[in-house]
Amino acid sequence: MSTPTFAPHREAVADQQADETAEADRPWVTVVWNDPVNLMSYVTHVLMKVFGYPKDKATALMLDVHHKGRAVVSSGPRERMEGDTATLHGYGLWATIQHDS
Amino acid sequence: MRLRRKAGALRLEITDAEAALLGGLLDDFADALAQPDPDDPVTQRLYPAGYTDDQEAAREYRELVESDLRAERIGRLQACRAELGAGGGRVTLDAEAIDRWLRVLNDLRLALGTRLGVSEDVELDDDEPAVQIYSWLTAVQDMLVMQVL
């Protein structure tokens, strides 16, 4: 019948620490966004070239960018995502880095 | 402009008029790249922000990356300009050259497309010379990428 008065607070702190650890461990992703200049054929070529994706995977990702406005094209540690994004920027694609949702 | 496969390599055949047009575009673009204006939408399109949700991270990314991207862009442009030379004729393209030309053509299209306000919904007026040039660059890039896709 009796409720320990400290338990809820300890739980809240533990939850917060778990959240912070989870936050740091959450993978990062590179997102490519649709834009009106880049050709579909060119985007497919870039995805194959930069990531080594086979043609059907690159095409599927390109179609997601085209129809849904964006697609996640790679995931992993933040530094690698920054490298991928810089490479894609060098190819003229519009890419950003964010936490995986 | 024509593309032909010759002994495993790709040969670009280009007329004097096309070489003059393309050379002029490359020269103009080289000038623009050398003096970037951060408020210019073309600059913003060529060097997009790496993060949309974190200003500090975006600033760090830009500091880390932008000057290298610019130097590499200028290098590719100069290599293409040199290959084009003084007039029309033939340019033989290996895999590296094809990739480089694709990127340079894309940069030209990004710059011109941004200037023209290209969007998904608005149709461009093809009486305008700039629009005709943009369409021509698009056709050339598409022709080239279909060769390697």
Q: Fraction of residues of chain B in helices?
A: 55-70%
Distance between the termini of chain A: 41 Å
Percent of residues in beta strands of chain A: 15-25%
Order of helices and strands of chain A: HEHHEHE
Question: Secondary-structure element order of chain B, as H and E?
Answer: EEHHHEHH
**Which sheet architecture does the biggest sheet of chain A show?**
3 strands, antiparallel
Task: Determine the oligomeric state from the structure.
Answer: heterodimer
The structure class of chain A reads alpha+beta
The average pLDDT of chain B is: 93
Overall shape of chain A: it is elongated
- Approximately how much beta-strand content do the residues of chain B carry? 5-15%
Biggest sheet of chain A, strands in spatial order?
2-1-3
Order of strands across the biggest sheet of chain B?
1-2-3
The SS-based structural class of chain B is mainly alpha
- Write down how many β-strands of chain B occur, each being a DSSP E stretch of 2 or more residues: 3
Describe, in short, the structure shown.
The complex is a heterodimer of chains A (101) and B (149). Chain A is an alpha+beta fold.
Description:
The complex is a heterodimer of chains A (101) and B (149). With 101 residues, chain A is of the alpha+beta class. Chain A is built from 4 helices and 3 strands. Chain A has helices at 7-25, 40-51, 55-68, 78-90, and strands spanning 28-33, 70-76, 94-99. In chain A, strands 2-1-3 form a 3-stranded antiparallel sheet. The longest helix of chain A has 19 residues, at 7-25. Chain A is elongated. Chain B has 149 residues and is mainly alpha-helical. Chain B is 65% helix and 11% strand. Chain B has helices at 16-34, 41-46, 55-84, 95-116, 129-148, and strands spanning 2-6, 9-14, 89-93. Chain B has a 3-stranded antiparallel sheet with strand order 1-2-3. In chain B, a hairpin with a 2-residue loop joins β1 and β2 (9-14). In chain B, α1 runs antiparallel to α3. The longest helix of chain B has 30 residues, at 55-84. The model of chain B has no long low-confidence stretch (mean pLDDT 93). The A-B interface holds A 36-39, 41-42, 44-45, 48-49, 55, 82, 85-86, 89-92, 94-98 and B 45-53, 57, 61, 64-65, 68-69, 72-73, 99, 102-103, 106-107, 109-110, 113-114, 118-120, 138, 141-142, 145-146, 148-149.
